[in-house]
Amino acid sequence: MKRNNPYNRIKALFIILSTIVVCWISVVQAGRTGWKRQEVNWRTTGGGRVKAIRYSEDKEPSLYNGKVGNQPDVVRKRIFRKELPSEKTSFNILSVPSVMANVIDSPPIDGFVPRIAVTVTDERSDDFDWVAQTHMSVVGRHFTDNPETDFTIGLFDTGASAHIISYAGANRTGIYNADMITSSMIEILGATNSVLGWVSQPLAIFADGLAAIEPNGMTLDSSNMVGQSNVSVIVGDLPPLDKPDLPTVVGSPMSVNFVTVINNDRQITVTHDGNDYTSPDIRFYDHDDSRIPDYTNRMPLNLIPSGALNIQYIPDLEAIMEFIFQPGTPSIIVGNLAQSLFFVDSVDLRNDDFSAIDKQRFMLDTGAQITVISSGIGSRLGLNPDNPDFEVEIQDVTGEITIEPGFYIDSLDIPSLGDWLSFTNVPVILLDVGSPEGGTLEGIIGMNLFVNFNLVLRGGGLYGQEPPSLEFELIPAYLPADIAPEGGDGIVDFLDFVAFSKVWLSTTTSPNWNPEADLAPPLNPDGTINILDLSVFTEYWLSTAAP
Description:
- This protein has about 550 residues and is mainly beta.
- It has six helices and 31 strands.
- A six-stranded mixed β-barrel has the order 23-24-29-25-28-27. Strands 8-14-13-7-9-16 form a six-stranded mixed β-sheet.
- The longest helix has 9 residues.
């Protein structure tokens, strides 16, 4: 492998990796009395874990913990445009514009992690073609003899501007043994620090949701995988002791070419290499696929910087002078000579008597479990970092630890076509994160705001493509006794009664057993359909899951 004196070929390009690994602090500043410590043990991206949280006893946080049923309250109602302090007009409800909104009170601090299965092959173009090619199935030859077992689990992360394969993942998939590493390194910019990674030779990378993995994590069904060939990825180097490996990430370059469906109402858990991974069911489709759900609510997105033409790597010009043709940078979305990422069209924030209206400076990041606001937004909202509502310890890509303040702001609204998204009592982290345009982002919209929703991310934004968007649909609250038709229809009615009667007095060993009808005791069903279950059923008669 041509890796001698690699630091002479570190490129000037910063690769944005805004996936945030959060570990809650176990020690608070001296003198902060009345705070409570709660131990937790959550898996996070990049090999980190959430270990504890400290907070004021009178402000207990809402935690998601990866459970679909642990959701904040949602009310669909009409909201009126908030009058800004500078407006002196008298209030007249008949003259104030209004919209329908899904109002989510007290979203959790942490959100879901969109995990995917990842494999690679040798598919590439000739030395003078630097542009990525899109594929709806796996093409090329794998670097190992057992691709059905030699795969890795990664993140679907729109906040990463390049694809990344961890050191462990690169060894597992055969990238290192196949001598697919160039002599170039790249600087990866995380939330607070940066780390170096190797630039790969052109290859192909493919992804699918965890449903493609046999539940015990032993084998991979690659028949529905999609991906890109002729791409250069970042490959993790052997991490120093006590430092984390880079995460495996399929980033925004994949997102623009496909429609990504994230089904939060269907959680999938697999065990792989002794680790349990839970994620929403994720599927990738061509833009014209009839299987894509059609949701009526749509959040416009922007690919920024604009003017992106394609996905490509930049060749190593120094190596060309030596007649060596290899990438000098990983493949990114090239827009006005800068890496492009997805940004929300506008975000309205309010806290006490202060407000902030942002335009196209909040990034949509599926790899971030938390929502972030910059110090600039925080100052406009009147926040005081010395007096936070809670604190977090953030472990960056380098393994470095920083303590950052967290706050509950009064509201955060995201205008959308159809129903708006309106959040109240919103937990945010005050943190400045680098932007692909230079400077810092105004904020990051994290997945803690979407635990109540199924999502359709329609990629796009390249030259000749439609603009990208995020469609969303509220997941009906779990409704016991809604057992028919299969999967439920949002109301307990005669259909459910018929299904219930067909399994009357059945047990787990009965041929007609239906676990959905085993309703009692509510937290620990007893495996028999009897009068106890009928009692629960009658409690929900004619109830509806609609908000």
